[in-house]
Structure formats: C-alpha cells, structure tokens
C-alpha cells in the first residue's frame, strides 16, 4: 500500500464530533454515533445559561445537573450517570453499530435563572483520538519517535476496527437482501399459483354455465 492510500485511510479514521445545541428544562437531546466494537469513546461537554438582562449565554452555575445516558445497538444501557454543569464521560463499545448518546438537565434552576434556555457544547472523540498522548508519553517516558510510533499503531488498529465494522455491515446487508429476495420469490410463486387456480375455477364455472344453458 502506497503512502497516499495510507494517509487517506488515516484521514478516514478521524472520528471527532464538535457541536453545540439548545435544550429546555428536562428536555432530552440524543445523538447517534456509529462505533465499531471494542472502541473507546470520550465526550466532553460544558453548559451555558441564557441571561435575560444581558441577552447572552453565560457559564452555568456549578449546581446545574446534567444526566448522560448511552445505549448500545441492542438497547442496553452502557452508561447512565449524573454530572455537573460541565464534565467528561467515557465508555467502551462492546457491540458494533449505532450507539445512542443522550443528554438532559434535571435541574429546575434553568427556569429561575435561564428562562428555560440552556446551551450545551459537546465534543465527542472516538477511537485513538480519545487517547491523551501527552499523558501517555509522560507516564511511559516515551521519546518523540516512540510516541509517534505509538500513535501510528493506534491509528492502524482503529482502521482495522473500522474495516471489520464495514465488513459486519456488508454481511448484515447481504443477509437482509437475500431474505428480501427470497420473500419476493415466494410471493411471486404464490401469486402465480393463485392466478392459475382462479383461471381454472373460472373455466369450470363458465363450462358449467354453458352446459346449463345448453350452449355446448
């Protein structure tokens, strides 16, 4: 594999999501993230309250509560925990597919101080981008070259997981297509049999009618 192709694969492995959104009191906002199995995910968030007088979003008070819930593709709860006005959540996927990440505030302070409006800044990092390499280098006493080699190995491992996940999706799609084609085939056969039986019944009915009228 040439360097251009390798660089393209490394770029495809980048899985970072940064966004912000607005929610009301106890309103839940969910996001879907496609994640391969055995992949670490780190989410960082911070909240801002709407100031009616200044008409701007200001940093939230420490007492504001934010609940984070993560479900795997089978609907099982992977993470369910209460955090503060800003925080960091981490989980590892064990089933490949769409994971649902939901956040909501269960604090009534939004009504008193924010007019029910809250802005949430959310950053989701998937795979090797969730690793804190400066911390790893300091802990394991790695040189710059060793750290770079570690990063490349992690990227290659993440690419392998992505490829395995794509093969998993292709296999599921193939099985679904085969099942659909088989159902269509049996439905066509059933329709053909019904048409033949209907034709035979109509012919016998017409024959009996003509015989009764002594036309044949």
UniProtKB/TrEMBL annotation:
It holds the Pfam family EMP24_GP25L. It is found in: Endoplasmic reticulum membrane; Membrane. InterPro entries: Emp24-like, GOLD_dom. It is a single-pass type I membrane protein. Residues 1-18 form the signal peptide. Keywords: Endoplasmic reticulum, Membrane, Signal, Transmembrane, Transmembrane helix. Residues 28-126 form the GOLD domain. It comes from the Eukaryota. One of its GO terms (cellular component) is endoplasmic reticulum membrane. Belongs to the EMP24/GP25L family. PANTHER family: TRANSMEMBRANE EMP24 DOMAIN-CONTAINING PROTEIN (PTHR22811). This is Transmembrane p24 trafficking protein 4. It comes from Pipistrellus kuhlii.
């Amino acid at each position: 594999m040439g360097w251009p192709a390798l660089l393209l694969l490394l770029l495809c492995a980048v899985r970072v999501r940064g966004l912000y959104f607005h929610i009301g009191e106890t309103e839940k906002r969910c996001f879907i993230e496609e994640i391969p199995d055995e992949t670490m995910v780190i989410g960082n968030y911070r909240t801002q309250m709407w100031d009616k007088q200044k008409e701007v979003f200001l940093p939230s008070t420490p007492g504001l509560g934010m609940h984070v819930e993560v479900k795997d593709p089978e609907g099982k709860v992977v993470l369910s925990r209460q955090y503060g006005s800003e925080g960091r959540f981490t989980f590892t996927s064990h089933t490949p597919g769409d994971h649902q990440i939901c956040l909501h505030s269960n604090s009534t302070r939004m009504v008193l101080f924010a007019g029910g409006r809250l802005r949430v800044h959310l950053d989701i990092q998937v795979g090797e981008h969730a690793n804190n390499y400066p911390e790893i280098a300091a802990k394991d006493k790695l040189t710059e070259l060793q750290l770079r080699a570690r990063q490349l190995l992690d990227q290659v491992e993440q690419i392998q997981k992505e490829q395995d996940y794509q093969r998993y999706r292709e296999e599921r799609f193939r099985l679904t297509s085969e099942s659909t084609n088989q159902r269509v085939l049996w439905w066509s056969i059933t329709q053909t049999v019904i048409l033949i039986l209907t034709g035979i019944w109509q012919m016998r009915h017409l024959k009996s009618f003509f015989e009764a009228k002594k036309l044949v």
